[in-house]
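Exam revision sheet. Question 4 asks you to relate a sequence to its structure. Input first:
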Amino acid sequence: MHEVKLVKELVEKALNIVKENQAKKVKKIFVKIGANSHLTSENFSHLFKEFSKATILEPAEIVISPAQGEGLILESLEMEI
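Answer key, structure tokens:
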């Protein structure tokens, strides 16, 4: 499943950003999902929750916006430093 790989990579990228910034908490995660990505908001949320379990990302609110194309984009993180 291509979608699983995309979400897993996005979680890893977000965790790297958190680590680089030495964040204490992640409040919100802003994501754009491409209209042709074969990934629904519901599927993304489910997969994100699975891959972010027991991490600093787990309690964060996920804000999803539509985008053009096939990609999955980590737009930004709202963090407490």
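Marking note for examiners. DSSP finds two helices and three strands in the chain.
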